[in-house]
Amino acid sequence: MAEERINAEQVQHVAGLAKLAFTPDELGTFTGQLEKIIGMFEELSTVDTTDVPATMRLSDDTLGENNLRPDKAVKSDEALRQALLANAPEKANGLIKVPAIIDESGDGE
Amino acid sequence: MTYFDQDLTSLHADLVAKKLTAVDLAKTTFVNMKQVDPELGAFLALNEDAALKRAAEIDAKGIDPDNVLAGIPVAVKDNIVTKGLTTTAASKMLEHFVPVYDATVVEKLYASDAVIVGKNNMDEFAMGGSTENSALKLTHNPWDVSRVPGGSSGGSAVAVASGQVPVAFGSDTGGSIRQPAAFNGVVGMKPTYGRVSRWGLIAFASSLDQIGPLTRTVKDNAAALNVIAGYDQHDGTASKRAVPDFTAGLDGDIKGMKIGLPKEYMDEGIDPKVRAVIKDAVKKFEELGATVEEVSLPHSRYGVSAYYIIASSEASSNLQRFDGIRYGFRAEDVKNLEDVYVRSRSEGFGDEVKRRIMLGTFSLSAGYYDAYFHKAGQVRTLIIDDFKRVFDKYDMIMGPVTPTPAFKIGDEISDPITMYMNDVLTIPVNLAGLPGMSVPAGFADGLPVGLQLIGKRFDESTLYKAGYAFEQATDFHNQTPKVGGAN
User: Fold this and answer.
1) How many domains does chain B have?
2) Which of B210, B329, B333, B361 should be substituted to probe chain A, the one whose Cβ sees the most A Cβ atoms within 10 Å?
3) Which of A9, B277, B339, B389 matches a 20 to 30 Å C-alpha distance to B323?
4) Going from the N-terminus, what domains does chain A have, and what CATH number goes with each?
5) What number is the ipTM of this complex?
6) Shortest CA distance from A52: residue in chain B
7) Average pLDDT over residues B157-169
8) B237 to chain A: which residues are within 8 Å by CB?
9) CA B128, B133, B137 angle in degrees (round to 5)?
10) Mean pLDDT throughout B395-416?
11) Known catalytic residue: B152?
12) Which residues of chain A register pLDDT less than 50?
């Protein structure tokens, strides 16, 4: 790993992937904090993990490899539909309303 | 009646004998909550009308003598979804979110006739160790209101410690039940990964999250876990293993129990006053006939780094769903779809949540995956192996829950690494999927100190047995905090 662990440009790139935006001030603060935290992570490079498998999830031997319930549609009622819609930020005609997907800002982005 | 001089067993006996009704209990509870909580901030929402209605229904059909939670007021952390009752995860993102279903744990509570009286404050999306990351409220420690209650289940721990409810349910991803339990002098259990269904728990890190109870006594805790444990077809990781009666082995007899005390849990990084309390606890266990020997968990020191990579990576994926479209916060005056996503997330999430999303996205991104995410998974394996080696020879592991007692509000919030180090003794337990419990073990400068008991997978019973023996041989669980305690 390079001496510079993460710079503002990389933080900006990661923010783009994460669908987050930062003001210039926030970008400075976050870059400094992430730099320190990622610096702490580097202690892991001192651990010898040759031939050690990675644990990504914990399984229990009472469960099979594919412990899934049958993929069967369950019909819900109108009350549930209304309760779900009630949580939508904007709605129209019983549907969830979103801004136009085609950009109308005219800035070409 | 107060929850300081009665436990679940005696309350249940009174309810069955009709010396007390569920409605009486609920009414008294709300009167007390309204007196005590304004100073503490344990609750984000009270569920008064529905709770009183429910209590009346339970009285009408009669208290089930086999059901220890029947008619008992309980509180639930606000990242556990409750149908029709606002569930916020203490985030602006979900400030007005009303779930359309109940978490499995909540279904089980209703099925056992428990009465849900309110939703507890927490760190936003369970990310934090002080409840200061709540976007909605500040919670205070009832032993010293200038101090944090711990987190992320800070509201749940305070609700129990201040005598507002006898039982609360929290969640623990890296210590979020055990650390606030320790800071507030109550009993908190993080069950084995897979023991309790995560269905309806707003996901933070899915390979680590687990729901568990916080109570004033060990026996109450065991009784509460009995109710919520077990297989659930809605959670692909919920174990099919039979659930034992966790109250069964509580007889105070721990003669011959073999306990390991990790030297890494008693080194100079731990406040000497905390170490002194734990040394006294070791002596007590020896007096009770257990043997306590020094052991080593050599990779536990890498737990914090491995955890903040793994948990943040899982969080960055889990929190993608908050996009401002179907539910939750949507930014105003957005001009296109990308704008909805970016502005809603940037305005809806607090700084710690953003930090974790950034860390996770970074750890998973091209060029860094192997050095961070994969490496952390390998270190996780080594941590699991450390525990396995100790459990070949020992029945249980003990040590402190936290390096220090509760710190001052405002002291650590601006320094993420200092805050993360609070979890150094609890994180390895989550990474290995083991059960871990905090039991009140004494005081340092008037602040509670927790003893952590760590067990083999699915062996919560040994922790309850040992915790009960220790509790009965000491008086720490009978001490009451400044706020709430004088009632």
Assistant:
1) 1
2) B361
3) A9
4) 1-46 (1.10.20.60)
5) 0.93
6) B378
7) 98
8) 57-60, 63, 67
9) 135
10) 96
11) yes
12) 1-2, 108-109
Nearest partner of B70 among B247, B231, B227, judged by Cα: B227
The closest CB to that of A104, out of B330, B336, B363, belongs to B336
A58 touches B at CB < 8 Å:
yes
Write out the residue range of the structural domain in which residue B379 sits. 1-487
Q: Which residues pair with B439 in a beta bridge?
A: B451
Kindly report the CATH number assigned to the domain that includes residue B274.
Answer: 3.90.1300.10
**Which band of pLDDT confidence, cut at 50, 70 and 90, is reported for residue B405?**
very high
B29 neighbors B2 (Cβ within 8 angstroms): no
Instruction: Output the six-digit token pair for B300.
Output: 């536990």
Distance CA B120, CA B74 (A): 11
Cross-chain Cβ contact A44/B354 below 8 Å: no
Residues B8-24: what's their mean pLDDT?
Answer: 97
Per-residue tokens: A106: 């005219």
Our answer to whether residue B284 is catalytic in this structure is no
In terms of Cα–Cα distance, which of A105, A86, A89 is closest to B335?
A: A105
Tokens of B190: 């993080």
Directed axis angle between helix B22-40 and helix B8-16, to 10°?
A: 150
**Range B364-376 average pLDDT:** 94
At B318-336, the pLDDT tens digits run: 999 999 999 999 999 898 9
Q: What is the mean pLDDT of residues B403-426?
A: 94
What six digits make up the tokens of A20?
């987050």
